[in-house]
Fold this sequence. Notes:
This is EF-hand domain-containing protein. Pfam families: EF-hand_5, EF-hand_6. It comes from Dichanthelium oligosanthes. Keywords: Calcium. The chain is mostly helical. Helices cover about 65% and strands about 10% of the residues. The chain has seven helices and four strands, in the order βααβαααβαβα. It has helices at about 10-15, 20-30, 40-50, 55-60, 70-80, 90-110, 125-140; strands spanning about 1-5, 40, 90, 115-120. It has a two-stranded antiparallel sheet. It has a two-stranded antiparallel ribbon with strand order 2-3. It is globular, with a radius of gyration of 16 Å.
Amino acid sequence: MSVEILDGSTVRSFVEDEGAFNTSVDGRFAALDADRDGLLSYAEMAGELMSLRVLEKHFGVDEAAVAPDELAGLYHGLFARFDRDGSGKVDRQEFRAEMREVLLAVANGIGFLPVQMVVEEGSFLKIAVDRELDQLAAKAA
């Protein structure tokens, strides 16, 4: 983890850079695709979804206090957002589309004023920050 300064334009610029965005998202997709069939099942995505700890991070709710069936429903609902055609599997295009929406929502939430955030190494936010820093360094050179 590292502490970074970013604003909504940092994230938005990353998403709008189709090459950088697709490369990063496709890398995450490939890492999740355990059976290498080009599709993500709920089982393949479940660990990633659960690692987000949505209730704890965003709503201050300890997931241990939530009934298992409610928690399962939450994670299946998140998976359904990715599985846009309802096939029970997420293809690369669906994954890209949902990640684009998620990151643009994050950009809108951050807004136009710079904020200091703790970001995880390898996260899309860290990739966006590093991309912006590389661009600034190239302009200064």
